[in-house]
Fold this protein.
Amino acid sequence: MAPRKRGCHLITDEIMRQLPALPRIGLMNIFIKHTSAALSINENADPDVRVDMAAILDRMVREGESYYTHIYEGDDDMPAHAKCSLIGASLTIPISNRKMALGTWQGIYLCEFRNHGGSRHITVTITGED
């Protein structure tokens, strides 16, 4: 995935464009191969939710705390690792009728926790039957 600025980004459509046809029924696992970004499912309609989520996470896990020992990669690095552990590196989504069975207001977020995280790599594994 292309680099994104720090924050929560709705990536549902981007994920779907890169997938093959989905099975009639099954499961999809989406895994991000990084320790300073995460994946989440949340509100897909109001972009203010993404702004608020990023602000909440920044307040929960603050930069520059004196007790951090992993400090060599910048003030945003250790907090990014902690946020990744809190949010998670993977999602499992049911597939029904050849579509992701997300709720009406649900979308997939890429949560970028670094100021300059760079491109991100995601692996999607699909199992199911037609």
About this structure: Residues 41 and 108 are 5 Å apart (CA to CA).
